[in-house]
Write a structure and sequence with these properties.
Layout lengths: L17 H13 L6 H10 L7 E5 L2 H11 L7 E5 L5 H8 L3 E5 L10 H7 L4 E4 L11 H11 L2 E5 L7 E2 L2 E2 L6 E5 L12 E5 L2 H10 L21 H32 L13 E2 L5 E4 L3 H14 L26 H9 E4 L7 H18 L4
Parallel strand pairs: 2-3, 2-4, 4-5, 5-8
Antiparallel strand pairs: 1-9, 6-7, 6-10, 8-9, 11-12
The chain binds pyridoxal-5'-phosphate (PLP).
The site of pyridoxal-5'-phosphate has 14 residues, from α3 and α4.
Keywords: Aminotransferase, Pyridoxal phosphate, Transferase
Cofactor: pyridoxal 5'-phosphate
InterPro entries: DegT/StrS_aminotransferase, PyrdxlP-dep_Trfase, PyrdxlP-dep_Trfase_major, PyrdxlP-dep_Trfase_small
Length: 373
């Protein structure tokens, strides 16, 4: 974490410990380094998170989304409804597949797609819905599934921030025609880089396996046009170590969030909302700062000065980024969310002292800036 003060509490802290290093070295000294036994084992083991659905490992979360769209037959002429309040990869994957994103509003409390707004956005070219389980909170899959069924749309879950999230006891990744996870270093578990596509059956699974590897099952007998989006066995071996620890880390994130919820309750900062039946895994612990971007940025500066690393996900909603601005989407709820959010450290490596420091700093920052609900 270059540039951070030594006593700074980092906003995120990816784990690369002795076990990860040992796993990587084992693979490097072994022989099979790409899409070998470690990848197969990682796919098998990841199935435990998604009720045994078929899992196909790829080289990033973006690749996972891209290939899921291709495997479901989405492309030129198709529109895919996505939230603008997400990481750009959500819309980029749609464009890369040759389809066009259509941005719909989010719920101001959960920051996930609002089914009513999605219903309004459905048009003659709509072919798919791509909700994002943002910050580790599940999107409202009941309403979105109904809409998808009513209009005959594919449903793809962007679960890149939501490993082990669930809704009414059902894990995310099991609602859609496909679901995509990321293993980028700052996610709740990582594989240096990597992604996983999760699908209900091996028919679609086989298509995805072809797409990630030049369209080949048997070497040089290419059946379709595919890319090279293979995962390395180094990544898979690290992913397996992390997967084994995910449950413990998730409980720690949730426990940290409870401490922050209690500590911040009277500061004027709006603590994360949890919808009925949602199991939030706090990929981010994101508060809202009333008063707009100026107040939010002022709180952020105060926290920074107090040694608490925080971040804004995402300062510019996708519909205002250069590749998408010409679409002219009008999304006031999304704009307000982008102006108000601030993510505080919640990662599992925080100590009790760190949590206390975060609460004290946030309380003092809110006072200094004059935040009131
Ligand atoms: C991280 C992320 C992605 C992309 O994953 P990469 O592994 O970085 O390619 C896609 N969507 C969301 C919501 C993400 O947070």
């Amino acid at each position: 974490m270059q540039g951070l003060r030594k006593d700074m509490i980092p906003a995120a802290k990816p784990v690369i410990g002795d076990e990860e290093v040992a796993a990587a070295v084992r693979v490097l000294r072994g022989g099979r380094v790409v899409q070998g036994p470690e990848v197969a084992a990682f796919e098998e083991e990841f199935g435990a998170l998604v009720e045994g659905r078929a899992c196909i490992a790829v080289n990033s979360g973006t690749s996972a989304l891209h290939l899921a769209l291709l495997a479901l037959g989405l492309g030129p002429g198709d529109e895919v409804i996505v939230p603008s309040f997400s990481f750009a990869a959500s819309a980029n994957a749609v464009r890369l597949a040759g389809a066009e994103p259509v941005f719909a509003e989010v719920d101001p409390d959960t920051f996930c797609l609002d089914p009513d707004a999605v219903a309004d956005a459905v048009g003659p070219r709509t072919a798919a819905l791509m909700p994002v389980h943002l910050y580790g909170h599940p999107a409202p899959m009941g309403g979105l599934t109904q809409l998808a069924q009513r209009h005959g749309l594919a449903l793809i879950e962007d679960a890149c921030q939501a490993h082990a999230t669930s809704l009414h006891g059902r894990p995310v990744g099991t609602f859609g025609d496909a679901a995509c996870f990321s293993f980028y270093p700052t996610k709740n578990m990582h594989a240096l880089e990597g992604g996983m596509v999760v699908v209900p059956d091996e028919t679609l699974g086989r298509t995805l396996r072809l797409l990630r590897n030049q369209g080949m099952e048997q070497r040089y007998e290419n059946e379709i046009v595919g890319a090279n989006m293979r995962m390395t066995d180094v990544s898979a071996a690290i992913g397996r170590v992390q997967l084994a620890r995910l449950a413990g880390w998730t409980e720690q994130r949730r426990a940290n969030a409870r401490v922050l919820d209690e500590g911040l309750g009277s500061t004027g900062l709006v603590t994360p909302f949890v919808a009925d039946g949602a199991r939030h895994v706090y990929h981010q612990y994101t508060v809202r700062v009333p008063g707009g971007a100026e107040a939010r940025d002022a709180v952020r500066r105060e926290l920074d000065a107090a040694g608490v690393g925080c971040a804004v996900y995402y300062p510019t909603p996708i519909h205002r980024l250069k590749p998408y601005a010409h679409l002219g989407a009008d999304l006031p709820v999304t704009d307000a969310a982008a102006a108000g959010v601030l993510s505080l450290p919640v990662h599992p490596q925080l100590t009790a002292d760190d949590l206390e420091q975060i609460v004290e700093a946030a309380d003092s920052a809110a006072r200094t800036v004059g935040v009131t609900r």
